[in-house]
Design goal:
mainly alpha, globular, 7 helices, 0% strand
Length: 184
């Protein structure tokens, strides 16, 4: 992979830029609550997920497998989002079912990638990326139950979404840097 001008690998630079953009977008979303601010919050985060997935798959199975994996995840996410935008109740139920199924399928894919990481790269790296996945899953749960928890915890669990998802992203970057160093 071609190196960025600052001497870091381009894939790491892209991921760090996307993390920074997500932080800025999150600030704008929480400050202004507009559709544009939401786009600046969500799009860099989704792009981070797609790029990380592609780089991870690429490190295990080759660059083209990584590109196909990233695009496959992007297509599945786009279809889920498009289905969730429908207004009828039946479509809403269908969209939730598709999103739920894609999350389960995605988890299965991730577990396969962890297994492949253990076999091809090693146990320590698999532990790092597994911890990143656990943090991301718990973050998603905290975000999903936030409104329900406001009656129990007055400030909700939204803050855990931010903390755990940031931790997951940090661990994902550490995982990739560790692999870059190990492969060099």
């Amino acid at each position: 992979m071609q190196k960025a001008r600052i001497g870091w690998p381009a894939d790491i630079v892209v991921l760090l830029f996307l993390l920074f953009a997500t932080g800025v977008g999150s600030f704008f979303w929480h400050a202004f609550r507009t559709r544009l601010a939401l786009a600046f919050d969500a799009i860099p985060g989704l792009l981070f997920l797609f790029v990380f997935t592609g780089v991870w798959i690429g490190r295990l199975f080759g660059r083209w497998a990584g590109v196909l994996g990233a695009f496959g995840l992007m297509i599945a996410a786009t279809l889920s989002i498009m289905l969730s935008m429908w207004h009828s109740r039946l479509a809403h139920v269908a969209a939730r079912a598709v999103v739920g199924a894609s999350l389960c399928d995605d988890l299965g894919d991730r577990l396969f990638l962890v297994w492949a990481t253990i076999r091809k790269i090693g146990w320590v790296s698999a532990q790092i990326v597994s911890l990143a996945l656990v943090c991301a899953i718990i973050a998603a749960i905290c975000r999903s139950i936030d409104l329900m928890m406001c009656s129990v915890i007055p400030f909700g669990t939204h803050f855990l979404w931010h903390i755990l998802l940031s931790t997951a992203a940090y661990l994902a970057v550490v995982f990739l840097i560790r692999q870059r160093t190990r492969l060099a």
